[in-house]
Write a structure and sequence with these properties.
Blueprint (H helix, E strand, L loop, with lengths): L2 E6 L6 H14 L4 E5 L5 H11 L7 H25 L3 E5 L2 H11 L4 H12 L6 E6 L2 H7 L11 H17 L4 E5 L4 H15 L1
Helix pairs in contact: 1-8, 2-3, 3-4, 3-5, 4-5, 4-7
Length: 200
């Protein structure tokens, strides 16, 4: 059975570490598991990632939203859809829900406007399950090893984004599963894996 799982949340919630632990465990269960990250995951998308995250560039909010949508459309077409079509589990470090939270609500561009732009490029490739990593914004910011252009926005912006995820979870309770990211990584991984296995 194919499944597309997205790990979502503000910076510093441990998504990248959790991604590896989940993938290893599910592979051990006998599943084909593919991991992807956003922005990135294809040569074109990695080039866009550099523009999006480098502090060397000043990027307007709608430019940011459209670049995120562009790299995501490429990733879906080139990597995610083919994997799902052959029955794999795809686990993404971020997904379209990052754009809904960060650009749609956080940047004030409008949830439906950003959703519409992304729907056009994704052609139905949408996460089946969103593991929402919940963490206090101040703690998340303190955990960040390397500051990128978006995390450099600071605490106030991350608090808005954290609230945005709460709004999204309220709008789609059947798709979102809340995971307390303030615990040890092993506890978080155990919780996340239970949610995924139940979905499978």
């Amino acid at each position: 059975m194919s499944l597309y799982v997205a790990l979502e949340g503000i910076e510093g919630t441990g998504k990248s570490t959790l991604l590896r632990l989940i993938a290893d465990a599910l592979s051990g269960d006998g599943h084909e598991v593919l991991t992807v990250r956003e922005p990135g995951g294809t040569p074109a998308a990695e080039a866009i990632r550099h523009v999006l995250l480098s502090p060397d560039y000043q990027v307007e909010p709608w430019t940011e939203a459209l670049l995120f949508a562009a790299q995501r459309a490429q990733l879906a077409a080139e990597v995610i859809r083919p994997a799902l079509d052959r029955g794999a589990i795809v686990i993404g470090d971020r997904s379209v829900y990052s754009s809904l939270a960060y650009q749609g609500i956080g940047r004030g561009l409008g949830l439906e406007a950003v959703r519409t732009v992304n729907e056009a490029g994704l052609c139905g490739t949408w996460p089946d399950l969103v593991l929402w990593m919940v963490l206090d914004a101040e703690i998340g910011l303190a955990r960040e090893d390397v500051e990128d252009r978006i995390s450099a926005e600071g605490l106030d912006f991350l608090e808005v984004v954290a609230d945005a995820y709460s709004q999204l979870a309220g709008l789609e309770p059947n798709r979102f599963a809340m995971v307390d990211a303030g615990r040890s990584i092993n506890e978080v991984a155990t919780d996340a894996l239970t949610r995924i296995r139940n979905k499978l």
